[in-house]
């Protein structure tokens, strides 16, 4: 039995209250109103991309989880649809947690998600079926419970199913789980029809080396390599690598579909910015593997203006590819449809801090190619500059390090505002593609071999961009404004 009044209340609330949201980023998806966390159900269904999200419409804080829903043709212009799921049934009355989607052979859209059983707190996998707009909970929910868990695993932490279709037309899903040693794992399940599921194997596990609970797994092949994405909680931090706390990792290896055996060869941090978590991918109709993540980190949930009526946004969707053995990301190519006002410079000498004519703005796509002169120690870009405030990107040339620092923006919260990562320099030149939107800075360094995604809340008037090279550097720039109309 579902209590239809719970979803009806959410629909009425979001329809009325979203009219009061006036301050959204231009091309990043935000919640229709209220709170957003993980991307869910990212899929191409019936001629459109669907992106659902963990959603609490009623406040700027996490609360009983619904699924918000938006659709798009180009992953840039999003249309909100009514909330797809609400915590309104026996199997999920404590919340509809993260999950995924696919299109069934009969054309229906299937959502697989974690239901929280209200009384016991048990986490169990549930289904809902719909037409791309309205969804009905499957009467047989839950479809995966503790009964299917291997020895030592607990249903207190058993969530975030990512479903896909295997090469023989049957179904697989991977979930996050907590194993007997107190650390995370990814579990593989199989089904003939996507409704009846059985446990296959433990795909991979942390063994207390890669954090505690593994949240929001995803699994796919890219260029014949197997890629397992996980978002571990409570990782121990290292200066150049992971943040203390929540991170998102790509585990790269090989996979035998017939046995379900994944063999991990390599671990890579997916993004080195301050705000990136719970990425989920989908396959575009043209074969591109596209990733989107929650551009936020559980550790930094403040800083936004008090009058803002939305909280949380998605990263710009990115295309995944391999280069020199690394999983790389580039902005979706559709972004070029928003390009206006091209401004370019070639071999521009940068020394003392300077601005360049036509290079400013808050919504732009800018590629820099930096060639430092001998003895040049650092190249700096000031972003969101104005009124003594700024974010800074610094390439420390001798050390091959890229440093992002938003501490000189007007952010009051007392937490980490700086990250550093290693960059890959080709023939003495570093490329930095920087995408700015109203409330974010996304950096793709070295053709996408490292990315840094961070949220910022500067005053709207802060459009300044500055350049400085201690010791001199030649700079090529191509800058486009991003126009949403
Ligand atoms: C990750 C997460 C998921 C869970 C969801 C709840 O950010 O904790 O594991 O399904 O958020 O909103």
Itemize the secondary structure elements and their pairings.
Blueprint: H1 4-17, E1 34-45, E2 48-56, E3 66-72, E4 79-85, E5 96-103, E6 109-116, E7 123-130, E8 135-137, E9 158-165, E10 171-178, E11 184-191, E12 197-205, E13 214-222, E14 225-232, E15 249-256, E16 261-269, E17 277-283, E18 289-294, E19 310-311, E20 318-323, E21 326-331, E22 339-350, E23 364-372, E24 378-386, E25 389-396, E26 401-405, E27 418-422, E28 430-437, E29 440-445, E30 450-455, E31 464-470, E32 473-482
Parallel strand pairs: 1-19
Antiparallel strand pairs: 1-2, 2-3, 3-4, 5-6, 6-7, 7-8, 9-10, 10-11, 11-12, 13-14, 14-15, 15-16, 17-18, 18-20, 20-21, 22-32, 23-28, 23-32, 24-25, 24-31, 25-26, 26-27, 28-29, 29-30
Bound molecules: beta-D-fructofuranose (FRU).
Termini separation (Å)? Answer: 44 Å
Strand order in the sheet with the most strands: 22-32-23-28-29-30
Beta-strand percent range: over 45%
Number of helices: 1
Largest sheet: 6 strands, antiparallel
Overall number of strands: 32
What small ligands are held by the chains?
Answer: beta-D-fructofuranose
Mean pLDDT over all positions: 96
The coarse overall form would be globular
Key structural traits:
50% strand, binds beta-D-fructofuranose, 6-stranded antiparallel beta sheet, 3% helix, 485 residues, 5-stranded mixed beta sheet, mainly beta
What does this molecule look like?
The longest helix has 14 residues, at 4-17. The strands form seven sheets. A six-stranded antiparallel β-sheet has the order 22-32-23-28-29-30, with no helix packed on it. Strands 4-3-2-1-19 form a five-stranded mixed β-sheet. The model has no long low-confidence stretch (mean pLDDT 96). The radius of gyration is 22 Å and the shape is globular. It has one helix at residues 4-17; strands spanning 34-45, 48-56, 66-72, 79-85, 96-103, 109-116, 123-130, 135-137, 158-165, 171-178, 184-191, 197-205, 214-222, 225-232, 249-256, 261-269, 277-283, 289-294, 310-311, 318-323, 326-331, 339-350, 364-372, 378-386, 389-396, 401-405, 418-422, 430-437, 440-445, 450-455, 464-470, 473-482. By secondary structure, the protein is mainly beta. Beta-D-fructofuranose is lined by residues 37-38, 54, 65, 97-98, 114, 159-160, 215-216, 277-278.
